[in-house]
Amino acid sequence: MFYKPDMMDALADYDAARYVIFGVPFDATSSYRPGSRWAPDAMRKASANFETYNEFFDIDFEDLLIHDAGNLEPYSSVDETLEELHLAVKPIARDGKIPIMLGGEHSLTYPCVKACAEEADEDIGFVVMDAHFDLREEYGGIRNSHACVSRHVRDDITDTYVTIGVRSGPKEEWVYAKENGLKYYTSDDVREMGIKQVIAEVKEYLGCKKIYLSLDMDALDPAYAPGLGTPEPFGLTDIDVREIIRALAPISVGFDVVEIAPEYDNGISALLGTKLLREFIAAHAASER
Ligand code: MN
Ligand code: MN
């Protein structure tokens, strides 16, 4: 028998599935250290560690309809990869399923948000957890760099945008964020206000809008997730991020976990990313009971 690293408990076929997991092993625009191409399979492997039962939500993954579609074969160029990804996510969103991407780098989020926004009956917002603003128009001559994803989502798809955990960016990005009245919470804001207060404000800002939720793992402090493309100290805790996901999963039409680079640690970043992904699914499924 050959070993095929399926995501544990992703046993439904596509037609029956409510949640469609897929990996995109692509990290070509990584600016500091690449390696997120290895994350999708590392996360599938890590998933074998977890029990199927989630006590907090009283959800058993064995009762959920989850499909693992495997990995999208990336192109060498970022633009072609994003185009192909957009085409792949459109039907998932159109079929009323929840697409869940295992990155790969953060640029991959853009076509997922776009596909979900195009297929939604109403305007959707974008909530991202990230150490970085990702508000540059281009980076290193590449428009679709991982460092630009939030800028393009805001410019092209939705003004309803919140970023949580931000603590790094050139001065121009901070000025841009302030001048444009962007809704952002630094990791220090989270520590000072408390995550519950931050979530309450975010929910009030979103009103009854649905969102696409994106987790750039570097939102977390490198103490929790050291296996990253661009680690940044003084970050969010694992519990902060879990709280955000638990609170926002029920209003999400799509989700991703990006920027884990498993070669730089002993496996804990992929483990945590996978657990957070399972919290997303459990929280979403509990809201539909
Ligand atoms: Mn990012
Ligand atoms: Mn980041």
UniProtKB/TrEMBL annotation:
Per the record, the domain of life is: Archaea
Q: Name one Pfam family in it.
A: Arginase
Recorded GO molecular functions are: agmatinase activity; metal ion binding
Q: Which InterPro entries match?
A: Agmatinase-rel, Ureohydrolase, Ureohydrolase_dom_sf, Ureohydrolase_Mn_BS
**A biological-process GO annotation:** putrescine biosynthetic process from arginine, via agmatine
Cofactor field: Mn(2+)
Does this entry carry the keyword Ligase? no
Q: How is the cofactor bound?
A: Binds 2 manganese ions per subunit.
Q: What organism is recorded for this protein? A: Methanolobus profundi
**What positions belong to coiled-coil segments?**
none
Which PANTHER family does the entry mention?
ARGINASE/AGMATINASE, GUANIDINO ACID HYDROLASE, MITOCHONDRIAL
Family, as annotated? Belongs to the arginase family. Agmatinase subfamily.
The positions annotated for binding Mn(2+) are: H106, D130, H132, D134, D216, D218
- This chain's protein is named Agmatinase
Is-annotated flag, keyword Metal-binding?
A: yes
Q: Which UniProt keywords apply?
A: Hydrolase, Manganese, Metal-binding
